[in-house]
Amino acid sequence: MQGLTMKVVHYPSLKTVLAIEDVVKNGNTALSRNQILAKLPTKVMRSTLNVALIYMEKRGLILETDKGFIWTFNPSKKLERAEEEGLEV
Asked: Is the distance from CB of 51 to CB of 11 less than 8 angstroms?
């Protein structure tokens, strides 16, 4: 994905970002942009969706694969502890 260097027509509201997060998190498989748009409870402009997806990917919540977007965030305490105690290479 590209950075936010594109001209942003409309920034997503928090409500929109949370709705997109919910759709991707609860998806059983990788979801394309069209699938995400179809599953959202309200209409969202594609450019607004793209801004939200870029934000979520930069935050490590999702990952874009060749088949679509998947949820990657894991708030596991074990993982957090392993990152803190791990050896940095």
From this structure: yes
Residue 5 belongs to some domain of the structure: no
Instruction: Residue 75: give the domain boundaries.
Output: 14-85
pLDDT in tens, 20-48: 999 999 999 999 999 999 999 999 999 99
Query: Cβ-count burial of 1 within 10 angstroms (0-12 exposed, 13-18 middle, 19+ buried)?
Result: exposed
Number of structural domains in the chain: 1
CATH number of residue 31's parent domain: 1.10.10.10
Tokens standing for residue 9 = 């027509």
Neighbouring CB atoms inside 10 A of 69's CB total 24
Q: What is the largest CA-CA distance in the chain?
A: 45
Per DSSP, the three-state class of 51 is helix
- The model carries a pTM of 0.77
